[in-house]
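Handout, section B. The chain below has 142 residues.
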Amino acid sequence: MKRLFFVLLATAVSCNMLLAQSNDEKAVAAAVENLRKAMVDPTKAALEKLTAPELSYGHSSGKVQNQAEFVDALVSGASDFLNIDLTEQTIKIIGNTAIVRHVLSAATSDNGKPGNAHIAILLVWIKQSKEWKLLARQAVKI
């Protein structure tokens, strides 16, 4: 009887952990989608809500921005995304950290100059006070 109890308890704990991870994956996917939307239609409030103050935002050109620089570039139009499509997304949760990879394809108009982007992205998200915040991003050319 004790053995059956422990087997049932272990099964219940395992199922609960899988459900929690699934919920975290859904929350991270929602945060990524909210970031995508905020990058196309940027506001300072939305971008700051989605990013950690310690943000390190790396571009495929090698340029690295902090949170203030990242937000200012989008809000000012220096970096202007007309649209963004994300494909091939994977999410891996490790404790309160999430690793997200995807391919970003976008039409841009940086400082009014039309362009396109097709890059691979690595995002690192951290869970702070039950919210997922972008801590780091690195883009590389495909």
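Note. The first strand starts at residue 51 and ends at 58. Compare this with the example in section A.
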